[in-house]
Amino acid sequence: xxxxxxxxxxxxxxxxxxxxxxxxxxxxxxxxxxxxxxxxxxxxxxxxxxxxxxxxxxxxxxxxxxxxxxxxxxxxxxxxxxxxxxxxxxxxxxxxxxxxxxxxxxxxxxxxxxxxxxxxxxxxxxxxxxxxxxxxxxxxxxxxxxxxxxxxxxxxxxxxxxxxxxxxxxxxxxxxxxxxxxxxxxxxxxxxxxxxxxxxxxxxxxxxxxxxxxxxxxxxxxxxxxxxxxxxxxxxxxxxxxxxxxxxxxxxxxxxxxxxxxxxx
Length: 265
Known about the structure:
Blueprint: H1 8-17, E1 25-30, H2 32-35, H3 41-53, E2 58-62, H4 81-90, H5 106-112, E3 118-119, E4 127-130, H6 135-138, H7 152-155, E5 162-167, H8 175-183, E6 189-195, E7 201-207, H9 215-223, E8 229-233, E9 236-242, H10 243-261
């Protein structure tokens, strides 16, 4: 069986086919592995995205980093106080220029280092944008409720023709659904602990991790309204929808689910 070979041009044609137009804003979650063998790899994907939206368009991707967290592979409860303090002192903290977004995938990491890409300053939940209007969505990224109203993900709801694009990933990867929950009256909550830009450990309230409990079914429910276009980018299934209507729909549905289950703050 022959394997489809993607090129920048074939990806661009497919992006246009799913409804991406000049001037659009796109917030993208994508899997290079799902897209498949591509001449030029992640670079070809990013270049195709830029060509699809044109010079007036906006591209965004998550740039979440673990540099400001206590190492996840260490059980801090089993450590002595002195060992824990030594490790906490060694945590590097966030740097907008050098903290990798590799946990978000090779496409997001390639985009992070792209010329003219700018990044918000949240130590753990930063966002990268690239486009002529990028700066207006990145200022004053709140430390608490890091995906909420005063975050790039919250502010992007206001951009005309802003869209969510999922390429080879599910609704469980959609950061805008955290925004939706942050904005509802009954969000699930957690405490986020990180080293801030001054090298001090800080705790803030934030929306809880979903862990596939609500987001997949919320996304499916939105698809059932007919508001989501589908297609393929390379070998990956693609879903695309308008950003603000998704957030509004999801916020209302998540609130109802949280009340019904009693799972709320």
